[in-house]
Write a structure and sequence with these properties.
The chain is an alpha+beta fold. The protein has a single domain (about 1-165), classed as 2-Layer Sandwich (Beta-Lactamase). It contains 5 helices and 6 strands. It has helices at about 1-10, 15-30, 70-75, 135-180, 190-200, and strands spanning about 35-40, 45-50, 65, 80-85, 110-115, 120-130. α1 runs antiparallel to α2, α1 (about 1-10) runs parallel beside α4 and α2 packs antiparallel against α4 (about 135-180).
C-alpha cells in the first residue's frame, strides 16, 4: 500500500510543493510517528521543504548542520541513522512539534536518512516519534527500502521544474521573434508598393512629404 501510494504520485502531474507534501504525508501515515520533515541542503544549512507534525513557523527555519549533531550524523552516512530514545544529543525540533510547542522534546524515538540525487548529497529526511520503541528494526529496514522511491520523487520534481523553465524560456524567444522589428512595413498590397515607390522618388529631395 505504501509503495503503491508513492509510485502513483511518481507518474502523476503535480505541482512540486504538492508532490513533496504528499510524500511526507504518506510517510507520516506509514510510520505512525509525530513528525516527518524533508530538508534540502543549501551549502552548510538544511531547509525544510515539506513537513508534517511541525508548527508552520518551522518551515521558515534554516538549520546550520554544524550546530545540530543529529542532522550532521544523518548526513554523514548513506544508511538510515537511528538515535537511542535517551540520547543526549539535542533535537533540532525542540519546541517546534505541534504536540509540544515551545517545549523541549521528552524521551522519544528519532531516525533519519540522507538523500542523494544524481549521485550528489541533496538533503535528508527525518522522522520523530513521541513514543520510544516506535522505530524498531523493521521500521529502519523499511526506511532504507523507501529511500530510492523518495529520491526518485525528488529527482522528478527537479526535472519538472527544469522542464517548466525551458518551456517558459522557449515561449519568450518565440514571442520575441513574432514581434516586427522597429520601422518594418508589413504588407504586400498595391497601395503599399506605390507608396514605397513614391518615397524613393522624394527621398533625396528637400520636398515635404505628408503620409
Amino acid at each position: 500500500m505504501m509503495e503503491e501510494a508513492l509510485l502513483a504520485d511518481l507518474v502523476a502531474e503535480l505541482p512540486s510543493a504538492v508532490r513533496l507534501q504528499r510524500l511526507v504525508h504518506t510517510l507520516h501515515q506509514r510510520f505512525r510517528c509525530g513528525a516527518v520533515v524533508l530538508l534540502r541542503l543549501d551549502d552548510d544549512t538544511l531547509r525544510p521543504l515539506a513537513a508534517v507534525g511541525l508548527v508552520q513557523e518551522a518551515l521558515g527555519r534554516r538549520f546550520v548542520v554544524a550546530q545540530h549533531p543529529r542532522l550532521a550524523a544523518i548526513l554523514s552516512q548513506r544508511e538510515p541513522t537511528w538515535f537511542e530514545p535517551d540520547s543526549r544529543l539535542p533535537d533540532p525540533y525542540d519546541g517546534l512539534l505541534d504536540e509540544h510547542v515551545g517545549e523541549p522534546l521528552p524521551v522519544h524515538d528519532c531516525m533519519g536518512v540522507s538523500l542523494y540525487v544524481e549521485g550528489k548529497l541533496w538533503g535528508a529526511l527525518t522522522l520523530d516519534a513521541l513514543h520510544a520503541g516506535t522505530f524498531g528494526d523493521d521500521a529502519r529496514r523499511d526506511l532504507q527500502r523507501y529511500t530510492l522511491v523518495i529520491e526518485a520523487a525528488i529527482r522528478i520534481t527537479r526535472l519538472e521544474h527544469e522542464n517548466r523553465g525551458l518551456r517558459l524560456a522557449r515561449s519568450d524567444v518565440l514571442e520575441a521573434t513574432r514581434m516586427p522589428a522597429d520601422g518594418e512595413i508589413l504588407g504586400q498590397s498595391q497601395i503599399i508598393a506605390e507608396l514605397l515607390r513614391e518615397l524613393e522618388v522624394v527621398a533625396d529631395s528637400e520636398l515635404p512629404v505628408l503620409l
